[in-house]
Amino acid sequence: MDSQSFSTPNELQQQLGERLKRLRLNRNLDQRTTAEKAGISEKALRNLEAGRGSTVATLLRVLKALDSLHGIDLLAPEASVNPLDLLRQAKPPQRAPRRPREG
């Protein structure tokens, strides 16, 4: 995916499907076995691999069946705190404010 920013969603779905198919073949699995392992229909797997649309649940099931859930970290990395944002935040109070005396 060299030109990701210029690809349409349909093109990206096709590229993702092709990669999943190659991953499955590299694992020496056929579609039937992979679909059974993922708990989905063969048609759902064929649609995913062909880039004809799918659900996120199907994608996750297939990734899990292919032992490739580590790809999720690349797809949606954990948000981290930017140290510069911490410096820009207002400093927390150092002590409690004084209460007015009653009386």
Notes on the protein architecture:
The protein has 103 residues and is mainly α. The protein has a domain at 7-77: 434 Repressor (Amino-terminal Domain), CATH 1.10.260.40. Helices cover 54% and strands 0% of the residues. The chain contains six helices and no strands. The chain has helices spanning 9-26, 31-38, 42-50, 56-65, 71-75, 83-88. Helix 1 (9-26) packs across helix 3 and helix 2 (31-38) crosses helix 4 (56-65). The longest helix is centred in the N-terminal third of the chain and has 18 residues, at 9-26. The relative contact order is 0.11. The mean pLDDT is 86.
Structural class: mainly alpha
CATH topology of the domain at 7-77: 434 Repressor (Amino-terminal Domain)
Q: Outline the biggest β-sheet.
A: none
Name given to the CATH architecture of the domain at 7-77? Orthogonal Bundle
Element pattern in H and E: HHHHHH
CATH class of the domain at 7-77: Mainly Alpha
Tally of helical runs: 6
Bin the strand percentage. Answer: under 5%
Please give the share of residues in helix: 40-55%
End-to-end gap? 74 Å
Find the CATH superfamily of the domain at 7-77.
lambda repressor-like DNA-binding domains
Regions with little confidence, pLDDT below 50 for 5+ residues: none
Q: Which term fits the overall shape? A: elongated
The whole-angstrom Rg is 24 Å
Mean pLDDT: 86
SS elements, strand count: 0
